[in-house]
Amino acid sequence: MRKQPRRAGSDASQYTDPEAEHLRTDREQFNLAHKDTYTVLEGFPISAAVHSAAPLPSNEDARLSALESLGVLDTAHEQRFDDITDLVCSIFNVPIAIVSLVDKERQWFKSCVGLNCSQTDRKSSFCAWTLVPKNPEVLVVPDATEDVRFQANPLVLNDPFIRFYAGAPLVTTQGHRLGSLCIIDRKQRHFDAESCRLLCNFAEVVVRELEKDAARAAEQRSLERVSGFQQSLEAESEGILLVDTSTPDWNILFQNEAWLRATGMTREEVHGGKLWHLFTPAGQTREQVTQEYQTAISKQLSFTLHLYHGRPTSASTRRLVIAHFKAAATEHINSRTPLVGVPGSVAWRNGEAGHLYFVTVQRHEEPEIGGRDGVQQGVEAGQNEAFDDVQLGPLLGQGGFGKVYRGLWNGAAVAVKIIQHSGPLLVSEAGTDMKPVLSRRPERKVSDLTTLKPRSRNSTRPQHLEAGNVEGILTLQLSHPNVVQTFKAATRPLQSYCLDVTEETEDEQLFETWLLLEYCDKGSLQDAVDRGWFHADQNGHIDSRTKPNMRAIRATAHEIAAALAYLHSQDLLHGDLTGGNILLASSDADERGFCAKVADFGLSRTLGSEPVDTGTYGTVTHMPPELLTTGKLSKSADVYAFGVLLWEMYTGQRPWSGLGQMQVIFHLTQRKKRLQFPSGTPPQLQALGTRCMSAEATERPKFDEVLRLIDELDVD
Q1: Which among 40, 100, 126, 626 is placed 20 to 30 Å from 591, CA to CA?
Q2: What angle do CA 334, 340, 346 make, to 5 degrees?
Q3: Which fold has domain 12-220?
Q4: Per DSSP, what are the bridge partners of residue 585?
Q5: What is the CA radius of gyration of the chain?
Q6: pTM of the full predicted structure?
Q7: Domain segments of the chain: what residues?
Q8: Strand 402-409's sheet: what is its strand order?
């Protein structure tokens, strides 16, 4: 039987974890052996030159304001949140689970299982790292001792001896990240994509509860409610239940207060109960329902059931519940909530959590079953996918120009990018009936790019329309081992979009393009930098105290430069060359275990030798000064961004970390600040990086020369 975990505030003397005691003894011996390397700070031995806090997100002020407005900090523990942390401990079989809210200088725990504390300092917070990515995604740390961000963390070196961590960001309806719902173990673990999705759904439940309280308080004070709070109030009437369909009676694992109100049931009646002991299917037997929907469950499809609570033969006492079942490990509970990405480096899929279903109920009137106005029972249709032979999986990431999902194409792993734009990119084979357009690698012509509409600084057009996206056309023509391959693409029209342009109203047809892309299973270059992969020794052991691995840096830089040399030879500018847009795929060609591939051509365009004026910018931390001040764009912008990537790989840091977008622009354009390589940097690498990041575009080398200089780097 699984040991009951310790909850924050419990008597520590009554809880002894033999594994933690064993780890403590081992760590004390380690600290003694390395006493000359480590210093002691407030009783915690940490590496003096290594451990540092997560960088501040660019929207830190707005994020803190959103957190404060909820009024949740330093409130008492509540059973509804404790139910969630207890449940995730049980489902994932971990000793520790926390609802952590990241404040200005601390992380505070609204609910905590397995630790005898209610907060820690922010510097040691794992959860603070969930605030850093540009778009929200799950943070998975399989082994903290092999990740430079956490190797010297006091929570790793000492009690609770964190080894494994997975945290789903708590994202409000307005997009602010408050902290995370996290699980922790004292041993190394692997975490798959389905588990990430399941953890995200529990995080969504946490946010619903937090925002519901704030919405109630705002209503009571007769304050004007913002749209996000309005949605929370609407969600308050939606009951949520979690059931295990692998058990004969579909055991109930969790229920919220809204479910109890919607069904008229009590917590004592539902908690730990069985669905088929409480409800009777309308018009069917339990055996018929479980048999009929077994196939849908095996495929993790959604379905709807009409259920009676009470005596089904008594019209006066029975209550009809229309229950919507959604696979907990693959779908969002509510499609209106902000999407959270799953790291591309985690495995997908093993189906271990496929039997868990969230059940929502929004109405309990008794319509005429099967009538015109009734909600029909049955398996719900899935997403209308553009390719019949592609199965869409978890979200990998999203940006201003589209979303990227994991997928299976005839059993092979692929990435599926979905972009919305104005003006068709690809001509379908049957008029308005969209059919997949296979890659034919047609000869590139400038006329193909006439839909490109650079964004002006004063434009109010949505990004997916401003981009005039040409990615589908461009990537189908590219063929290089270090450029992510596009296998096929298809475009279909969406509903018309009315847009006010220069005081004239014109109707524009909105289109959707699907790109089937090569899947890169090692994540992004940004992930590799953050985790310290360029500080790995010849045996693959990562240690932040070792010198940067110049062999790995040179090999990766060569692959990126080769891709850019190829793109520029095709008169194609990338336009947003960042660590997040360089993907890594498994490779046994050298000791790194990966190769780099340039991806994401959402801001790409054809460009000759002369600069052009533009109002469309990529990521400001990787943009050259002339683009920020004059709007002049040339191929040298990619060279500048490449120099920033060299700096990142060598230093293991993010450029301009902790500064907001306007602060970065101010430092670059007004104060003339530049990224500086640290002392001890190999002279050849420093010279190359400095030239690439020159303030003068004409002083930056072309990529043919960059490749030659990389080959000359001394890596010994």
Answers
A1: 126
A2: 125
A3: Beta-Lactamase (3.30.450)
A4: 595
A5: 27
A6: 0.80
A7: 12-220, 237-379, 390-518, 525-711
A8: 390-399, 402-409, 412-422, 504-518, 486-501, 437-438
> Is the CB of residue 419 less than 8 Å from the CB of residue 428?
no
Pairing of strands 402-409, 303-309: unpaired
DSSP string, 189-241: ----HHHHHHHHHHHHHHHHHHHHHHHHHHHHTTPPPPHHHHHHHHHHT-EEE
Look at domain 390-518 and name its CATH class.
alpha beta
Nearest to 524 by CA among 416, 434, 597, 441: 597
Residue type at 616 in one-letter notation:
T
Residues 6+ apart with CB under 8 A from 218: 224, 225, 229
Is 70 exceeded by the pLDDT of residue 406? yes
Give the H or E element holding residue 18.
Answer: helix 18-33
Give me the residue label for tokens 């173990």: 185
β-bridge mates for residue 633, sequence order: 612
DSSP letters spanning 610-674: S-EE------GGG--HHHHHH-EE-THHHHHHHHHHHHHHHH-S-TTTT--HHHHHHHHHTS---
Going by the DSSP 8-state scheme, the letter that residue 348 receives in this structure is: -
Q: What is the pLDDT of residues 465-522, one digit of tens each?
A: 333 345 656 667 789 999 999 998 888 887 543 333 334 434 567 788 888 999 999 9
DSSP states of 62-102 as a string? Answer: HHHHHHHHTT-TTPPP-HHHHHHHHHHHHHHT-SEEEEEEE
Find out whether 417 and 344 touch, Cβ atoms under 8 Å: no
**SS3 for 13?**
helix
Q: Look at residue 632 and give its three-state secondary structure.
A: strand
**Do you know the residue count of the chain?**
716
The C-alpha atoms of residue 196 and residue 190 are separated, in whole angstroms, by 11
At 97, is the pLDDT very low, low, confident or very high (cuts 50, 70, 90)? very high
Rounded Cα distance between 95 and 285, Å, is 40
Does domain 525-711 match CATH 1.10.510.10? yes
With beta carbons less than 8 A apart as the criterion, state whether 535 and 148 touch: yes
Other CB atoms within 10 A of residue 55 CB:
18
Q: Is a pLDDT exceeding 50 seen at residue 459?
A: no
pLDDT at residue 16, as a whole number:
37
d(C-alpha 329, C-alpha 326), whole Å: 9
Q: Which residue has the tokens 């000791």?
A: 591
Tens of pLDDT along 674-684?
Answer: 999 999 999 99
Instruction: Report the alpha-carbon distance of residue 690 to residue 687 in Å, rounded.
Output: 5
Closest CA to 492 of 384, 343, 577, 348: 384
What residues have CB less than 8 Å from 106, skipping those under 6 apart? 119, 120, 121, 122
**Number of helices and strands in the chain (H, E):** 20, 27
- Rounded Cα distance between 680 and 201, Å, is 46
Measured CA angle at 176 (ends 55, 79), to 5 deg: 105
Query: Tell me, what's the pLDDT at 234?
Result: 45
Q: Are 199 and 144 within 8 A, CB to CB?
A: no
* Contact between 537 and 549 (Cβ < 8 Å): yes
Q: What is the C-alpha to C-alpha distance for residues 60 and 109, in angstroms, rounded to an integer?
A: 19
Name the percent of the chain in helix, strand, coil, to the closest 5: 30, 25, 45
The whole-angstrom separation of Cα 104 and Cα 195 is 30
SS3 530: helix
pLDDT of residue 511: 80
Query: Considering the domain 237-379, what is its CATH architecture?
Result: 2-Layer Sandwich (3.30)
Cα 17 to Cα 184: distance, rounded to the nearest angstrom: 15
Residue 674's φ and ψ, nearest 5 degrees, are: -135, 150
Fold match, 12-220 / 237-379: yes
Question: CA neighbours within 13 Å on the CB side: how many for 5?
Answer: 25
Task: Round to whole Å and give the CA distance between 160 and 13.
Answer: 15
Mention every residue, 6+ apart, whose C-beta is less than 8 A from residue 317: 310, 311
Asked if residue 291 lies in contact with residue 283, where contact means CB atoms within 8 angstroms, the answer is no
Q: Are 576 and 603 in contact (CB under 8 A)?
A: yes
